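Minutes, structural biology subgroup

Action item carried over from last meeting: produce the structure token record for Zinc transporter ZntB (Leucothrix arctica). EB confirmed the sequence was re-checked against the source entry. Recorded below for completeness.
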Amino acid sequence: MSDLQRLWIKSGKLVDESFSSTSDYSWCDYDLQLTTHAEALSLVDNIPSFALKAMLSQESRPRVESFNEGMLIILRGINFNPDESEEDMVSIRIWVEKNRIVTCHYRSIQTLDEIKEKMTAGAVPMSSSVLLAHLISILFQKIEDTILELDDSVDLLEESITESTLGISQDVRGQITLLRKKIVVFKRHLLPQREVVSQLRNSTLNWLHDEHRNYHNENYERVMRNLEDLEVMRDKLNILKEDVQYILSDRLNKNTYILSIVAAIFLPLGFLTGLLGINVGGIPGTDNPNSFWLTCVGLVVIVAAQAILFRKMKWL
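Output recorded by EB:
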């Protein structure tokens, strides 16, 4: 959303700015792609300088830090922006207190837009703690959905390889490599987010009540489950990669073997025909009109003898 939007909440309902002094809490979202938003965020009162610096930074890593009764949270979510890869996860920076929550981002985040739409429709969280829990839950649910889709892709690839070994091509190895890269990226982002949620569920801030920690416990279990799923997918792809390499190598060996047999059959034939074709005198059968046919019969006999020999040696 391009315009700076500040929401005030009182008793589970949105109120206008005239009630801001008596509201339970407020939420302001900054789109840092806009210079005016970045400047406005830098002037926000009562946010520690270290938190402001982290929120305005272009590069961020998932983490959580507490300061007095406030908390800085940096997380990553699935990238649903057009022409961008979903595993190139977008970063959301959050400063949250009992009566205020501030979010900012450099790229559009679908989760924030969905929450705003729900709040406008009347589904308003009662407190900043509940809003934070809902935001993180939706963020992680989208991550889980994407990982499940990735798991389906791995299963389909495994099925196609199992059912059609003859149809395996070099493209399959490219698909395996692409899926493995996605898994690596997701794991790199989810591992620190596991620590963030772990700290949230163990936080001792007064405004973070036990019932809200249940959300974070659930999110922690979700992240752990996602990481386990990624591990399983990685192992599957490693096995598939080995299978594909074996199948392609076996196919190459068979082709090479066939060519070797063909070469072994034609090597003596080529030697004999080459010997008979040299341009010198004294070649036997030169004056015999049946020499050509006798030579052909001889070559056929040689091929038959080779075939019998190769079969006895179990080369055929």
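Discussion: The first strand starts at residue 5 and ends at 10.
Next step: EB to file the record with the rest of the batch.
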